[in-house]
Amino acid sequence: MSGATAEIERVFREEYGRLIASLVRRFGDIDIAEEAAGEALVAALEKWPRQFPGSGVPPNPGAWLTTTAGNRAIDRLRREKQRDTKHRQAAAMYDDTPHESLGMFEEHEDDRLRLMFTCCHPALAPEARIALTLRLLGGLTVEEIAQAFLVPETTMGQRITRAKKKIAAARIPYRVPEAEDLPARVATVLAVLFLVFNEGYLSSGDGSPIRGELTAEAIRLARILHGLMPDEPEVTGLLALLLLTEARRDARVRGGELVRLDDQDRGGWDRSLIAEGHALVRECLTLNRPGRYQILAAINAVHTDAPTAADTDWSQVVALYDQLARIDPSPIVALNRAVAIAELDGPEVALAQVDRLAAAAPVLAVLSGYHAFHATRADLLRRLGRSADAREAYDAALAVCDNTAERAYLSRRRGELV
Amino acid sequence: MTQYLLSVHGSEDDYAEITPETMQEMFAAVDAFNDKVREAGIWVFAGGLEPAETATVVDGQGETPVMTDGPYLETKEHLGGFWIIDVRDLDEALRWAAEGSKACQGKVEVRPFQAEPA
After folding, report:
1. Which InterPro entries does UniProt cross-reference here (chain B) (predicted)?
2. Does the distance separating the beta carbons of A93 and B89 come in below 8 Å?
3. Domain stop point among A69, A94, A119
4. pTM of the predicted structure, to 2 decimals
5. Is residue A72 assigned to a domain?
6. Are strands B77-87 and B43-48 parallel, antiparallel or unpaired?
7. Any chain A CB within 8 A of the CB of B16?
8. Which range marks the domain in which residue A19 is found?
9. Residue A235 pLDDT exceeds 80
C-alpha cells in the first residue's frame, strides 16, 4: 500500500462514524449508508492524489466524503427508482426535533450519538452491539472485528447482517432515547465500550495488533460520547477509567509475562493519560452522582497517584470498594476488595474473607470459573507460606486462565514455590 | 408507524396455581392497561385466549382437511393472549410491552409486523 493510499484510508476511518451516522440519518437505511460510504472511499482514492497533490487530502475531508457519499446514494436510489419510498422511510425514522433533556448538538455530533444508541440497543444481542459499534462507528472492517474477537469472518459477517436486518425490520430508531429510558440506555452504551476496551486490554498478551487497537478505539468512542454527553457522570467515569487503565498498558506486560500492579515500573506509565484521567475523576466528584464506572476510575486514580506501590492509600481503596459493593454487591467486587484488605490488614485477614465469600455454594459456582479468584487465593497462600495449598490454587487458576501473559506469570510463581 | 404483536406466553399449569385474588388483581391491571392503550390511540386489537387444550389444528393442504385435537406446538408454554399496537418505533413498543408485562404478570414477546409493500 502506498503512503498516499494509507493516509486516505486513515482519514476515511477517522471520518467513518460521522459519515455513516449522517448518511443513516438522511437515508434511514444502514445498508445504503455503508454502500455510499464505500463508493466515496473509492472516489477519494481515485481523485484526492490528483486534486490535492500537496497533502493528498482535501482541506475538509469529512465534508468532501459526506457530499460525495450523499450524491452517490441519491444516484443509486434514483437508478433503483426507490427514492420516494426510501425517503419516506428515512423521514419516518428520523426525528429531527432537538431532544429536550440534552439540548442542541452540532448536527453531525447528534448523528453519531443517535447511531451509538442504535448500535447498542438492548433489543440486540450483546455481541451484536459490540460488532455493530465497531463496524459503523469505529469503521473497522468485518475481517478486523472477526480477528479481534477470534471468530470466523463469516460468523461475524452474519452477526452484523442479522443485527442490521433487525434494526430495519423491528424499527429500532435512530434517536437519542426518551429521558425516562436514558440512564439505562447510556449504561448499555458504556457496557459496550467497556467490553471493547477489555477485549483489547486483557488479551494484549497474544501479540495480535488489532486487539491492541480495540483499547484505542474504545477510548476514541468514549471521548466522543463524553463530548456529546458531558454532564453524564458515568460517561465521564468510564472515560477516566479507560484512560487510567490504558496509561499502565506498556508497564503491564514484560517479556510476555504479566506484571502485577505493585511490580510495575511506574516510570513507564503514561503521565499525560494519568493527568487527563485524574482531571476527569475530579470532574465526577464535583457532579456528586457516583456510579460504578466513576468509582472504578477513582480506585485507579488512587493507584496512579502513588509514586510507589508502598505509598498506595489502601484505606482509600477499601473505602471505594465498600462504596462500589453497595451499588454492585457481586462476588467479583468483594474479591477485589479482599485484595486491598490484604495490603491493609494482611494476607491472613484477606484469605479468611475470600474463603468466607466462597463458602456460599452459588458464589463459589461463579468464582470457581474465574481465574482471578484462584490467583488471588494462590498469592495470599504463598504469602502465608502455605506452599502446598498455594500450588493447588495456582493449578486451579491456570486451568481456567486463557491469557498468555497471565499464564506465564502464574506458571513462574507456581515454579518459585518452595 | 409500525404494528407490533405483543404476545404473552406462559405455562398453563402455572396459571392454574394462581390464587383467585391474584387473578382478580391481574384482570384489573390488564383492564387498566388496555384502557391506557386505547387512550394513547395505539390500540389495534387485543385479547386473551382460552387454554391451549381447546385448540384444533387444521391441515387443509390435502384433498380433505385433517383435524387434530390440541395445540400445534407440543410444549408446556403456550400463547395466552396478545396485543397488537401501532406505534412509532421499537422503543415505544418496548415501553408498552414492559407495562403490559407488569400488568399481566408474564413475559411479553415483541415482534414487528411486516411492512406493507410500498
Report:
1. Dimeric_a/b-barrel, YCII
2. yes
3. A94
4. 0.84
5. yes
6. antiparallel
7. no
8. 3-94
9. yes
